[in-house]
Amino acid sequence: xxxxxxxxxxxxxxxxxxxFSSEIYNLELAELTEPHTSVLQLSASDPDLGINSRIYYGxxxxxxxxxxxxxxxxxxxxxxxxxxxKDIS
Length: 89
Ligand SMILES: [Ca+2]
Hints:
Layout: E1 19-20, E2 37-41, E3 44-45, E4 68-70, E5 76-79, H1 85-88
Antiparallel strand pairs: 1-3, 2-5, 4-5
The chain binds calcium ion.
Calcium ion (CA) binds at residues 14, 16, 46, 48, 52-53.
């Protein structure tokens, strides 16, 4: 009998999660800031290679999607609805 050996080399698996440049972003906004203002630049990186390192930004908490939108590719966070103090107290 003969045996042959199959060598499979995995170059890069999508095994690493993206990491934000900061764990917490503090954002101070003046009341009734004009909507469609870019208020914060989010930045994340993913140590995987190629397509596995691609970052798509989004907001999953629907409490915040009324007020904020994030650009999927750039991570730029914008205010889309003016916040007044009575909304958050
Ligand atoms: Ca990854």
